[in-house]
Design goal:
Blueprint lengths: L3 H47 L6 H8 L3 H7 L3 H24 L5 H19 L3 H6 L3 H23 L9 H13 L7 H13 L6
Helix pairs in contact: 1-2, 1-4, 2-3, 4-5, 4-7, 5-7, 5-8, 5-9, 7-8, 8-9
């Protein structure tokens, strides 16, 4: 028969055997995320300073403070790193726009805030040669689709209250907004960007 003290010891051993691997796994995953982020940030900074064709995997490893062998375990080449960096960049912008769209204020205010934020993102992108170069591919098309869905939902809300025209479908109006505001990338100032947002928003208003 197992004594109470032996039972407690067995129970404690069982807990250690199950808890320690979990903590170890979480620590490894956290470390991997941190190394992955360091690789992406380092590569983007190097490309920004030296140009896309001047950066090598050896430079990235040295600047990030990791071995080349470790770097190759994460990514096979510079181009793959840059695509991963851009995917993270685009995802962060999408999250920002989604948070604005679900934030405080009525539907019209939230729609206006999302339109302005998106236009300013397009404006800033023109200053980043790296982002402009990478702004194509499947992940970008997926992000644009999600953005249009966000705008479509907000436009539909506004149409129900009569604050946005109802003679055109929310989907068409969302497409109009995305294509119109993408032009913010060619504008010289944030003031000009905000004028573009005003003109675009005016196009959503019900006809007199």
């Amino acid at each position: 028969m197992v004594s109470p003290s032996s039972h407690r010891a067995l129970h404690d051993t069982w807990r250690i055997l199950h808890v320690v691997p979990k903590l170890w796994t979480e620590t490894i995953e956290t470390h991997r995320r941190e190394v992955g982020d360091a690789i992406l940030d380092t590569t983007a900074a190097l490309v920004s300073r030296h140009g896309l064709r001047s950066v090598t995997m050896s430079q990235i490893a040295e600047e990030a403070g990791i071995g080349r062998a470790t770097l190759y375990k994460y990514y096979p080449d510079v181009e793959t790193i840059l695509v991963a960096w851009h995917e993270r960049h685009v995802a962060a912008h999408l999250e920002e726009l989604a948070n604005i769209g679900s934030g405080s204020g009525n539907s019209v205010e939230r729609l206006g805030a999302v339109l302005e934020a998106f236009a300013l993102i397009c404006h800033e992108r023109r200053r980043s040669e790296l982002a402009a170069l990478l702004h194509r591919g499947e992940h970008v098309a997926h992000a644009e689709l999600r953005l249009k869905e966000l705008l479509q939902g907000l436009i539909a809300e506004c149409a129900r209250t009569g604050e946005v025209r109802a003679d055109t479908s929310p989907g068409e109006l969302a497409n109009f907004c995305v294509h119109a505001l993408t032009a913010a990338g060619s504008l010289p100032s944030k003031t000009a960007v905000r004028r573009l947002v005003e003109v675009t928003f005016a196009g959503l208003k019900p006809p007199r």
